[in-house]
Each structure stands twice: as structure tokens, then as C-alpha cells.
Amino acid sequence: MSRIQTLFQQKHKRVLNVYCTAGYPELNSTLPVMESLQANRADLIELGMPYSDPLADGPVIQQSSAIALENGMTIARLFEQLEGFRDRITVPVILMGYMNPVLQYGFERFCADAARVGVDGLILPDLPEYEFETEYGAIIRKYGLDFIFLVTPETAEQRVKKLDKLSSGFLYAVSSSSTTGSNKQMNSVQDYLQRLESYQLKNPVLVGFGIKDRESFDAACAHANGAIIGTAYIKALEGAKDVGTATKEFLSTIV
Amino acid sequence: MNMQTYQQPDVHGYYGRFGGAYIPEMLHPNVEELQSRYLEIMQEPSFQLEFRDLLRDYVGRPTPLYFAKRLSAAYGTNIYLKREDLCHTGAHKINNTIGQILLAQKLGKNRIIAETGAGQHGVATATVCALKGVECIVYMGEKDIERQAPNVARMRMLGAKVVAATSGSKTLKDATNEAIRDWINNPSDTHYIIGSVVGPHPYPDMVARFQSVISEETRWQLKEKTGSELPTHVIACVGGGSNAAGAFYHFLDELSVQLVAVEAAGHGVNSGLSAATTALGKPGVLHGSKSLVMQTEDGQVVEPHSISAGLDYPGIGPLHANLFDSGRGQFLAVTDEDALRAAFDVARTEGIIPALETAHAFSALSQLSLKATDQVVICLSGRGDKDLATYMKQMEMMGI
Ligand SMILES: Cc1ncc(COP(=O)(O)O)c(C=O)c1O
């Protein structure tokens, strides 16, 4: 059983996944940020690999990516930083990023290195399901990594079920059709999450996009297994003197 | 690979190993709707009728195929110019925007977004939105807004809202990112009119089909003039590749016709300031399709350079990546300096001021060894009015 699956066996409710950008705010912040997330009760860590053209991201995460790239972050450097991190970090870790840098690194080499250092799963929002099924899925499975697809309120029932079947670990329910960090109202999010609940999916569901405080976290958790916080945490790290303190302060307002 | 045709992608949008639809799930409903309906809509008689009528009466098609006598003499061959510069709004871009606005209406979309670099596609989009009374938002890099002021004014006069893309390098690539983000955030009422044969499937095929009117006309016009439908060469400049796709389309599977695609070398292919994607790019994913992409070793997309904003793009349509990969197309690169020289040459030998993009295609003439018996078609993709500021600077330097 994968580390992610084990987590969901032990905890079904209010699972907290926090997104951070590798190499942000400083090149060598990656590990300290991850350690402070774990210390302050994050159940999962989603580590973003910075990219020059992050299509699905709003201004805050875009900016963190740009800073991380300026800091000199690369996939190769990230794997160097992650070398041996399992001595210190026990929570599941997922790498999130876009296809182009991963293809350039070499897809199989990427999966092999991720598995070797102790990463548990991947989110690649611009890897489509057709290419996953015909080419990349087998490589991901070969290295024992979980792969998490996204669904949105506009995703039709049949497709949700298909993406659930292809996913392992959990399913990522985007709260509204938007880029990350949008302030779109989550009015109808309950209906949508109840709809997902009624499909009896194989995977747990985590809700992401627009989760920024206790209220939105509670709302997301009402009909899902937990939620993902990204933009709000990146904002909390902005200009922080000490990532440990900033993380502690931020997460204490959520859990 | 499917060897039968270079024209059409497979059902998943692949030309050889390039194409596909690498999009986040948020775009899936819109892209899927387009994939499943574009061919059916384009084949509807009512669509065809209105498309053809507008191309004739509004755009001014067919555009002439003009035998350029003095230019031919200068190169010792036979050169025909396909006059897309005579289209309404001054470039081929409107062939595509007319098609896409009609398609958007069939899909019931009442809000249009577009990206633009030089502003030609933005103007062509603003024009068809005015024609149909539809809301129009054009994303344009902050830098391009500064350097293409007249086209920004045209779009505004036509009623479009021009939004500055302030992320990344603030040029065409970033304007495209912003347009895609807008589409993600507006999933139900919006159609995205992409301006070239790039983007996720079905855009490359759809835009190529709308632009294919260029080569459709060229065939019968050439036959009228020479007795043969087939030229020996077709030359076109390539940014994303829409005018080239249109000019090549009905010759793609005529293997006797040499297809010459001309990219912008900027200061020189290896100068670090270039936009010659096939020379410098590696396979990658940009703006929703797998193609050749100019990028760093780490897979970050690099900012290209060309004197012509319309060629200043770090990617190329998957149809063209496949022409390059398979050897079906010949890819040349022309520097800023050579393009400028060609623009002045054409102005003075034929009395036609070409767009800077098009000037690259003309400059390729001197890189080819053309014979007296050759029949060469050049796609004159646009007129040079929008580039007058650059041309004036050049004249100052040349003391004209
Ligand atoms: C006159 C002209 N030609 C060519 C291009 C390049 O685009 P494409 O390669 O899609 O034809 C542009 C783009 O702005 C243009 O304005």
C-alpha cells in the first residue's frame, strides 16, 4: 500500500494537504518548509515544481514560481534537495508540475528519481487522460507512484468515474472552474461535492482552489475527505523572516 | 505515422508525433465540445454559405495571384504573389477569425477572447466581433501594447477591450497564457479565437482549414495563368504557422511541390536573440500541444526575439513540426537585417510594402537556387502599414 493510501486508511476526515513551491521563498527553503508543514499538522505535502508558463495558476503561485526560477530552482536541483528527505519527513509528498519540464528531464528518469528519493505521487494537470493511458501511465505505475487527476464542477459524471478509475491515492476536486487562488464564490460547492459523494468513487476526494481559511476549509471538508491549501499559504510565506514561524501561524488558523 | 496525408491529424490531433491536447481538466468541456463539433459545424451548408459570402463580400476574396514581373526578372525565375495583404484589415488573419466567429455563434458563445502579438490577429478578431455585435477581449503583452500602438487604437475603436498581459516576459507567449487563463475562468459563455495553427487539438486543424482558402484559390489561379495547378515552390513565413499552413494546405500531399517555411532568425540563429524554432527548439508542450519549443535545458520556455512581433513566438504549430520532422518541408531562417532589406527591395521593385513578417518570406528567395522554369508562389501574408515606425527608423539609418 502506498504512503498516501495508508494515510487515508488512518484518516478519512479533514485531511489537510498544503501546497508549496519548491525553491520558494529561498532556493534552500524547500526542506525547511516541508518540515514545518509536517510539524504543524499538514497530512500531505504538494510540492510545486516551478515553470515559466503555469497555465492553471493565478498570479500568486505564478509569482512564487517566477521567484523560485530566479533562485535557480530546477528539477535536477529539487531531486538533490530531496535526497535523503525521508529521514526527516514521514508524511506523503506529491510533486505537482507541468509536462514540459518533466518531458525535458525525461519522463521515465523523472519517475525513477522521484520514486528513489521517496516521493509518493504526481499531479501533472496538463497530462491528458489519452496520453496517460497510451504512454505515461504505465511508466508512472512501474515506479509505484500514485497519479492524481483533477475534476471540476463541469466534469460530466461518466468522466469523473473514468478519471477516478485512472487515479490512485486520491481525486483532486477543483472547487470551481478557475485558476488557482481565485475568489470565486463557492456557493454551489456543496451540491457538487455531494454529487461526487453519490458516485461512490474508489478514491478519497480532496478539494482544492480557493481554500484559504478555516471557514472555507470546513466547507470543503463537509462532503469530502479533506482539502488542499495553496495560494493562501504562499501568501503567508511572502516576505516571512522565518518560514517555521510563518507556517505555524498560518496553519494554526486552519486546524 | 499515417503516411497518407500531411494535411490532417489523427483523431487525437496528432501530426506524426506532434499535436494532441495537453490541457488542464478545467478546459476539457470547452475543448471537447470543439473537438466533437467543429467538423460537423464547418460542413453545415448554412455555415459554408455564410463563410463563403463573408470571405467574398467582406474580406474581399478571392485575393489576386499576381505575377511579379520585375521581382521574377531579378531572381531569374517566375514569382507569383498571393495577395493576402489585400484582405480586409491587411493580413490573412481574418480568414480564420471569420470562420471562428461563425463557429462561436453556432456554439452559442457570446463572449470572445483572443491573444495578439503584433496586433493583426487582435484587429481581425475585434473586426469580426464588431461585425457580429459580440463582446471582445484581447490579451496583449504589456511590451507589445507599447510597441504596436496603432493596432491597439484600432482594436479600441472597433469596440474591443485590450487587456495587458503583465506576467512573464509580457509578450505574445504571455498574452496566450492570459487568454487561456481567462478561458479557464469563464467556462460556459466564452469562445477563444486562437490566432494561429497552435493550441490544443482541434485548433491547429481548424485554423489550417479556415486558412486553406489561400491554397485552394492559388491552385485554380495558377492554372488560369500557367496551365498547371502546381507550382514548384510555395514560400511562406512562419510564426505559429497559420499563413504557411493555408498557403501549403492543398499542396501538402503533392510531393512535387517544395514547401519552404521561413522562420525569424532575429540577430542570427545562434545569437541568443532568435525565434527560429525548428533550428533551436526541442520537443515539448506549449499552449496545449506537443510540438517544437524553444526552451532551456531545464524545460523553461525561453523568450524569443524577432524584429517582427508576429514571428516572435517560441513555438510552432504541430503541423509544421511534423513537416520539419519528416523532411516534407524545408525550413529556412532569415535575420532581422535581411528581412528589412527584403522589405525595401520588394517595395521598390513591385510597389508593395510588405509586413515585416512577410519580408522574411521574400528574403528566402536569395537562399534558394531557383531556375528559369520554376514557378514560385510566395504568400504575401500582410501589408506593412503596421510596421511603418520600424521602416521609418531604418530609413533614418540609411539616410533616406
Ligand atoms: C502579416 C503577418 N504574417 C504572418 C504572421 C505570423 O503568423 P502565422 O505564422 O500564424 O501566419 C503574422 C502575425 O501577426 C502577420 O501579421
UniProtKB/TrEMBL annotation, chain A:
Record keywords: Amino-acid biosynthesis, Aromatic amino acid biosynthesis, Lyase, Tryptophan biosynthesis
Q: Which reaction does it catalyse?
A: (1S,2R)-1-C-(indol-3-yl)glycerol 3-phosphate + L-serine = D-glyceraldehyde 3-phosphate + L-tryptophan + H2O
The UniProt entry, under CDD domains, shows: Tryptophan_synthase_alpha
What's one Pfam family here?
Answer: Trp_syntA
Q: Which GO terms describe its molecular function?
A: tryptophan synthase activity
**SUPFAM superfamilies, per this entry?**
Ribulose-phoshate binding barrel (SSF51366)
The main enzyme category here is lyase
Q: What EC number(s) are associated with this protein in UniProt?
A: 4.2.1.20
Q: What pathway is this protein a component of?
A: Amino-acid biosynthesis; L-tryptophan biosynthesis; L-tryptophan from chorismate: step 5/5
By its UniProt entry, which InterPro entries does this protein fall under? Aldolase_TIM (IPR013785), RibuloseP-bd_barrel (IPR011060), Trp_synthase_alpha_AS (IPR018204), Trp_synthase_suA (IPR002028)
Superkingdom classification of source: Bacteria
Active site (record annotation): E46, D57
Assigned protein family: Belongs to the TrpA family.
- Give the protein's biological function: The alpha subunit is responsible for the aldol cleavage of indoleglycerol phosphate to indole and glyceraldehyde 3-phosphate.
Subunit field text? Tetramer of two alpha and two beta chains.
**PANTHER family documented for this protein:** TRYPTOPHAN SYNTHASE ALPHA CHAIN, CHLOROPLASTIC, TRYPTOPHAN SYNTHASE, ALPHA CHAIN
Protein name (record):
Tryptophan synthase alpha chain
Q: Which organism is it from?
A: Flavihumibacter fluminis
Q: Which gene encodes it?
A: trpA
Automatic annotation (TrEMBL), chain B:
Pathway the protein takes part in: Amino-acid biosynthesis; L-tryptophan biosynthesis; L-tryptophan from chorismate: step 5/5
Q: Which residues carry this modification: N6-(pyridoxal phosphate)lysine?
A: K93
Q: Which Pfam families match?
A: PALP
Key word Amino-acid biosynthesis present: yes
Q: Which reaction does it catalyse?
A: (1S,2R)-1-C-(indol-3-yl)glycerol 3-phosphate + L-serine = D-glyceraldehyde 3-phosphate + L-tryptophan + H2O
| Cofactors named for this entry | pyridoxal 5'-phosphate
Q: What is its EC number?
A: 4.2.1.20
- The enzyme's main class, written as a single word, is lyase
Its keywords, alphabetically, are:
Amino-acid biosynthesis, Aromatic amino acid biosynthesis, Lyase, Pyridoxal phosphate, Tryptophan biosynthesis
Q: Which InterPro entries match?
A: Trp_synth_b_CS, Trp_synth_beta, Trp_synth_beta/beta-like, TrpB-like_PALP, TrpB-like_PALP_sf
GO molecular-function term, one example from the UniProt record: tryptophan synthase activity
Domain annotation Tryptophan synthase beta chain-like PALP: ranges: 60-382
Similarity annotation:
Belongs to the TrpB family.
- Assembly with partners or alone: Tetramer of two alpha and two beta chains.
Role played: The beta subunit is responsible for the synthesis of L-tryptophan from indole and L-serine.
Q: What is this protein called?
A: Tryptophan synthase beta chain
Q: Which organism is it from?
A: Flavihumibacter fluminis
Which gene holds the coding sequence for this protein?
Answer: trpB
